[in-house]
Amino acid sequence: MMVNIEPNIYLVFGISIILAIFLTIDYYRSRSRSSGKSVIKNHKVLVISVTAILLLVLTWFLFTMNIRSEFNNHLSEKYPGQKFAIGFIAYDLMYGNYGAHVTCLDDHIPFGISKNSYSKQIEDYYSGVKRADLYNSKIKPIFENSDLKNAIVNVSGVGITLFKDVEIYDRISLSITAEADMISAATRTIEILKGNNISAGIIDILQEKDKHVYELSLSPADYSLSKSELEAKIEQRK
């Protein structure tokens, strides 16, 4: 497997060093003018300051390159034969994770990868994102080309099985407009799924209306319910 490093990382590293030097020099020039001293008299402080900045930047750069190498090895072992481009390394103070955005160069799927600074465990989300992309690539066009398209804000589907049996969904979620009738949308959704030989363990329909959020959750056993029975299953979430 080949992992590409973003070429701009070296450019940013170089620019950061140059910028640090110029900012430091500018600071001491301004200070010298205000105190009436020459820049030369402050050259020792200037050298020490610039050196400290360079060491800090270099240390962070080398450290992140080490993290990048660990990400590289993780992806190589888990997905042999696939190519990935790893972006910049960032640190999340809230969760104590080092992370980066990655793109698979074979299928252009973007995903995240992270390393916990305490447990040292590395996790990537490629399989989950690819699975979601697979399921959504089938379900979205079906509804976008249906008579429900104007009533739908968003539709997504998810399943456990990866890369096969995409007609079997664990859950299909629809968000509908405030103007749409939830029961009519639910009934039509069931018809559309049946017409495309798609089964779903759960159908979730969400609607924001009058500053509230309503949800209708249906299993296959609910498909034959009457209109009043479906209305009774609508829950106010907010």
Describe the protein's topology.
Elements lengths: L2 E3 L2 H28 L7 H36 L5 E3 L3 E3 L4 E8 L5 E7 L5 E3 L1 H19 L7 E7 L9 E9 L5 H14 L3 E11 L2 E7 L8 H6 L2 E2 L2
Parallel strand pairs: 1-2, 8-9
Antiparallel strand pairs: 2-4, 3-4, 4-5, 5-6, 7-8, 9-10, 10-11
Structure explained in plain terms:
The protein is an alpha+beta fold. The chain has two domains: 3-124, no CATH class; 128-236. Helices cover 43% and strands 26% of the residues. It is built from five helices and eleven strands; from the N terminus they run βααβββββαββαββαβ. It has helices spanning 8-35, 43-78, 126-144, 182-195, 227-232; strands spanning 3-5, 84-86, 90-92, 97-104, 110-116, 122-124, 152-158, 168-176, 199-209, 212-218, 235-236. Strands 1, 2, 3, 4, 5 and 6 form a six-stranded mixed beta sheet that branches. The protein has a five-stranded mixed beta sheet with strand order 7-8-9-10-11. Strand 8, helix 4 (182-195) and strand 9 form a beta-alpha-beta unit. The protein is elongated, with a radius of gyration of 27 Å. Mean pLDDT is 81; it is low at 1-11.
Query: How many beta-strand runs?
Result: 11
Into which percent range does the helicity of residues fall? Answer: 40-55%
What is the quaternary state of this protein?
Answer: single chain
Mean pLDDT: 81
Major β-sheet profile: 6 strands, mixed
What is the H/E string?
EHHEEEEEHEEHEEHE
End-to-end Cα distance, whole Å, is: 48 Å
